[in-house]
Amino acid sequence: MLNRRHFIMTGAALFSTPIAAQTVEDAPADTLTGGEITTDLPDVAEVVPPRVPVSPPSMWPVWDRRVTPANYDPMTSNPWGFHPRFLPSLVEANDGLRAGDVHVDAVARYLYHVRGDGTAMRYGVAIARGNLYEPGTYTIRRKAKWPTWRPTDAMIAREPETYAQHSDGMDGGPSNPLGSRAFYLFDGNRDTYLRIHGTPSPRSIGGRASSGCVRMVMAHIIGLYEEVDTGVSAILYPTENTVTARS
To answer: Do 211 and 128 meet the contact criterion of CB atoms below 8 Å apart?
Structure first.
């Protein structure tokens, strides 16, 4: 785009010799403003910053009620219709597991939260599709209620038809892919962009459905959220590994 400086410099290059005969009185009135040359070039468009997604805390209790079944009993309520084995259950933990840590059995599709009395709470989960599942030992450095979400650049490049529309992020709420709660997994100080989170697609529990994360029923992770502290480990076992607690 031509700007005023470019216009003047270009004019000087093309017309380097002054035309002595022309005076101020001879010049058209619309070319003079306070002794400066003006142009009809369009103004530079204002740059609008991208919208920042939001999650108003005032809505969190409302959304919690919306995703929690009526007369909810975590161990028996199952309006989602998945296999009953994926309902929360108290089981005996294997010896040597540190209280507070989270273990994900990718074979049986279970998440275990180890308690201090030798037991663990077990929940059904969904894991990532194909090679998008990344086993390893991570640290939960952050947790959030009704988080906002933006797909990673890799997700957008891999499936632009699905994720490009959310490149500026998505507000928190029941339709957000991270659901009601999220635990953020880090490798040292590096955010892996792996999450353990609620899902608006509870029928995926027991399967392989996500783009790298571990999914839980929203009502289940609401109950788990207050029990998990930041700083604990989250161990995601390989898909060929054995279970971590006895059922």
So the answer is: yes
